[in-house]
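Predict structure. Input: DNA primase, 577 residues.
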Amino acid sequence: MARIPDAFIDDLLARSDIVEVVGSRVPLKRQGKEYAARCPFHDERSASFTVSPTKQFYHCFGCGAHGTAISFLMNYDRLEFLDAVEELAKRAGMEVPRDANPRSPQQQDDSRDQYSALDAATRFFQKQLEGNDKALAYLDGRGVDADTRARFSIGYAPDGYSALKDALGKDERRMKLLDRVGLFSKNDRGHVYDKFRDRVMFPIFDRRGRVIAFGGRVMEKDDGPKYLNSPETALFHKGRELYGLWQVRQANQKIERLIVVEGYMDVVSLFQFGVTQAVATLGTATTPDHAELLFRNAPDVYFCFDGDNAGRKAGWRALESVLPRMKDGRQAFFLFLPDGEDPDTIVRKEGAEAFDTRLKQATPLSQFFFDELTREINLGTLDGKARLAERAKPMLAQIPDGAFGDLMKQELQRMTGVGRAPAGNAPATAPVRRAQVAPVQKRSLVRAAIAILLQQPSLALGLEGHHAIAGLRLPGIELLLELLELVQQRPDISTGALLQHFDGREEQAALHRLAAVALPGDEASWTQELHDAVVQLEKQLLQQRVDELLAKQRQQGLDETDKYELRELLKTRATMR
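Output follows.
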């Protein structure tokens, strides 16, 4: 994917007030030069989340969350990077450069037209619902009230083969658009007709609230497949989308959990009864993309399936997708309902409180994992234990490093004995090493220089010849040089934009922590300290070269060029003292 130009990101962040962006979502209180709030990314009683208008970035001293206005929108509104950039650009009245998008202008225009066509179809289906007694009676019978119908933009596709086509396909261009977004079918003779007929229609929204596809449900059991979904299109990939996720985001400022169910009506009914964290896969098993999307939105995920064999198989497929994404802090649970029941029927019979009680009694992933693997294995035999170890080990190896993965492996070891030292043959005790006391280190000049640059990047413009420290073998020197070079290339860069440059790199977290520290002093003192630090680093580089030449002299001698260089370096060193 083509990158958005750095200059545009700098300009965008410069025009975006992070206090305004964050403050529109989180209540901020002014504290001196900065603003504070309770962190929106973890539970806390005292405010450890700060937003700096001068540095244009946020930092939480509790959980370590940090970033710019872009990363805040990505984490809080759960947007993709490009979506967050477009959201900020819209607020700032800016146009994202065309070359930032890998698609041609014609393709972008076509996508906008497709979204418009789907929106028009949504409004058409909603209008048809208003005048159809059969569809309204069906929804009333399922307990779906007017507010819920509006929340999900539920509509009705009329019976007959050309209602939508006649209403919206008024010319060849519109016909092609409606076909590309999956609203038409074609028979063997090439005749085009409406794909959805006599069905209750459920629009499927993307993460920005745009309709990208539809699901249609029959009202009578014998009227064809229960659910009919739009085909895959340029806008819609069923393995990457979740029905109801947009509505969940709108209903919950903070999403503590997500409940994955199988049908659209399950999601709608749960919302109707106040359970506003339900989503559904779109006629497919839970995919790895689904799993990643679920955990990006909530730390706890509940999979709710029928209790029959098919439901348990669906649960196992979900587990296979979730397992490689079980980082510490994430949890997955499995709830299997009684025969003949689904979330829709259960919540209508028992109510939201009883459904919540069932969720609290759901099976943790760890238990479901071992229960399923041992279902047909006799752990009373060595053969059975070996078979369990053989099946479980490759799957457990997929879990990211951390406490959860370690505990799962320990449980497998407890159940099978595989990996445990034989009884009476304990491993020899490792020799006890004396604790080494780390030498007291002097304050790092490199760290001090970086900290000052993060406070006020423009101070780098006052330095001349900063490449004179290139080649100095000290930790962080290459990072310092990169920061200096960035400011020289982009003189107006802010702290937030500087940190954005390191997004996704291993140095990012350390830079954010350093930027969050309030340095004593003012611009004048920082300027002097930065200048002094660079001068000292230049001295260290000179001494480094002197030491190299002296070592070479002792080992093999110096030629005339080396001797001349050493004499000049010693003269320079004498003048620098």
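The domain at 105-236 is CATH 3.90.980.10 (DNA primase DNAg catalytic core, N-terminal domain).
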